[in-house]
Design a protein that fits this description.
Blueprint: H1 4-26, H2 32-37, H3 47-66, H4 74-80, H5 94-114, E1 120-123, E2 127-130, H6 131-159
Antiparallel strand pairs: 1-2
Helix pairs in contact: 1-5, 1-6, 3-4, 3-5, 3-6
């Protein structure tokens, strides 16, 4: 599957689910910052980290992995990209999360609109992947983390008696 329209539709579909989860938290009547910071267990990531990880991954994947340059937002990537450790003191506000998600998602889609989808990039561990395959992987990646957000939100509601 290397059809740009299909790939963009897949990315939009997964993003809508992520935003829908954040919308549900915002409209729940709960303390949003408390929900975003809540961890389902020791060493487990909170919802804010999961969402910001999606934003950081788009930045790092395009700029570092595919283009071979530096991330646009090194601080974001340091705090939330792969290999980072979720912090109890770095829990962004929902407005910041939304801003970073929009900024990096739009940049990713802009990149894809002008990219050669068949171009092969060398990744760590001797992995070779086309730009189209990378985009599909990032759609899966976001769906995975949206699932983590969904699970964490449901656990929060169960623990705190929220219906």
């Amino acid at each position: 599957m290397s059809d740009l329209k299909t790939i963009l539709s897949l990315l939009d579909f997964t993003r809508e689910r992520l935003i829908g989860s954040l919308d549900g938290i915002e409209k729940s009547g709960q303390n949003v910052q408390q929900v975003l910071a809540w961890r389902p267990g020791v060493g487990r990531a909170h919802i804010a980290w999961q969402a910001m990880h999606c934003a950081a991954t788009h930045d790092k994947y395009i700029n570092v992995r595919i283009k071979g340059t530096e991330p646009n937002d090194p601080s974001l990537c340091e705090s939330f990209a792969g290999g980072s450790t979720p912090s109890d003191t770095n829990v962004p506000l929902l407005a910041v999360i939304r801003e970073k998600l929009i900024l990096n998602f739009d940049a990713f889609k802009t990149f894809l609109n002008s990219a050669d989808l068949s171009k092969v990039t060398d990744f760590p561990n001797n992995v070779k992947r086309t730009t189209a395959e990378s985009a599909i992987l990032l759609a899966w990646h976001e769906a995975h983390h949206q699932g983590q957000i969904h699970l964490t939100w449901n656990l929060y509601k169960a623990v705190h008696g929220v219906s």
